[in-house]
Amino acid sequence: MTDAQISPTQRIQQWLDGFNETLQTNDPGQAAELFEENGFWRDLVAMTWNIKTMEGRDSIRDMLEHTAGQARPSNWKVADEASEQDGVTEAWITFETRDALGKGHIRLRNGSAWTLLTTMQELKEFPEKRNFLRPKGAQHGATKSRRTWLEARQEEERELGYSRQPYCVIIGGGQGGIGLAARLRQLDVPTIVIERNPKAGDSWRNRYKSLCLHDPVWYDHMPYLPFPDHWPVFAPKDKIGDWLEMYTKIMELNYWSSTECTSARYDENSKEWVVDVIREGKKVTLRLQQLVLATGMSGIPNIPDIPGADTFEGEQHHSSKHPGGSAYKGKKCVVLGANNSAHDICAALWENDADVTMIQRSSTHIIKSDTLMDLVLGPLYSEEAVQNGTTTEKADLTFASVPFRIMPDMHIPVYKQVAEQDADFYHRLKQAGFMLDFGDDGSGLFMKYLRRGSGYYIDVGASELVAQGEIKLKSGVSIERINPRSVTLTDGTELPADLIVYATGFGSMNGWAARIISQEVADKVGKCWGMGSDTTKDPGPWEGELRNMWKPTQQEALWFHGGNLHQSRHYSLYLALQLKARKEGLETPVYGMEAVHHLS
């Protein structure tokens, strides 16, 4: 049968058969020859016990030479019918390793692999107790030692952290910590979540009152419990807060609210973390094997040190502390910053009849929410995608299957289309003096987010106010000095001010490690987020994956978990599996740990 006569599915399976055969030989590295010379293999824990992208045959060969003997990958199969378009044949695949079952995705060009994604999905010996393995719940028969579900839960809550220690502690009880704790619960990993707020969801409730998710509902599901079909496309913050509070109860999480971590240190001799917390006013010392910082993708708020700030007679605060616009009717308000929070806060102040000026120091990427849904997110995360059979899992894996090195090339044409579709909108913003960009290379929103976690706004109305002059704008300047009732800008302009909001973002997540553990440990693990693209605020060298996120760090038994709802949901699986494997004593040799290039 000639190559032209076989189906796309047969073509993929033939490649997988040859791949599998080579992997079973004494020289598994030879399987690299089945890839394009500059092909990619992105592995999420399955082969490397790491989150790692191998770029090019030499890199793939080295990885296989170091990992194939221990991982023993086998049983590579096409999972669904393959497709073919523009010379690329692609398919979903399954495989297994010595310890785990996996899923993946492959793209072939001219008979060679262009991209391969492999992900660990389940540990063979330690599957989640679901479907046929789900617990019975009821205890049939008669016994004098019977305990109800409630009694068992109450006993666990009394003991864990006191007479019985957790294996893992997660510091940060927002959506990231909650989602990870839910996965660990299903894997029988004793875990406590530490949250300083009184209730789960308060980290959302406490933000400015107009805050809504800018990402659509299909992008934002939590693990195990997707939002119901009638959930709004863009959920208000308090609705999200209530969902998270409910989620912690339904998923039976050991969630310590009104608790603050005061210190943590790693005992090299006992291989334990010693974590001190204040729980409802009382000191508790926890001893655990794994510590996760789940403080979001951001660190401690950045508040600029501006001369004269201590003389200001009005009110000043960081955007994370902004209460909303209702208290500032008729006030002169200055918002330093021009990204998501700055726009939201400016719009809310305008709605409450404040006189508001946005200070834009550097250019911002703007994309209209409707356009984002239509051209960018829609193919994977939309009602149409769901109706076409794209499940949340399939959408997540599709996104994950594109190596970060080539992702900009796929996004640039889309954002050119965005610019053309909304050309009048962008023209009017420029006419108002707003400084616009589409990223250093024109690759738009997601690459900016992945590279630096800032520098963009998903427009839900504020940009129109800027274009119309309703939100006043000073661009290309910053605040040089703060006076008792005004600010002086770097161009010499003086603006009267009753309120200054610093919408100036956050530091790297390792800032929390410095505060909770030590500066030495923060420097040891280095900067979190970014991938070394050598673009603005993401210095090189190229690392190929997000720094320190969801994977082993240079500090033993310290992990970082965060990102948006989509990333928290998707990557929590791989982090949970890494933690479970260590708890059960499986061999977890980590391949390809990155050197630390940047401290913060």
TrEMBL record:
<protein>
    <submittedName>
        <fullName>NAD(P)/FAD-dependent oxidoreductase</fullName>
    </submittedName>
</protein>
<feature type="region of interest" description="Disordered">
    <location>
        <begin position="307"/>
        <end position="327"/>
    </location>
</feature>
<dbReference type="InterPro" id="IPR050982">
    <property type="entry name" value="Auxin_biosynth/cation_transpt"/>
</dbReference>
<dbReference type="Pfam" id="PF13738">
    <property type="entry name" value="Pyr_redox_3"/>
</dbReference>
<keyword id="KW-0560">Oxidoreductase</keyword>
<dbReference type="InterPro" id="IPR036188">
    <property type="entry name" value="FAD/NAD-bd_sf"/>
</dbReference>
<dbReference type="InterPro" id="IPR032710">
    <property type="entry name" value="NTF2-like_dom_sf"/>
</dbReference>
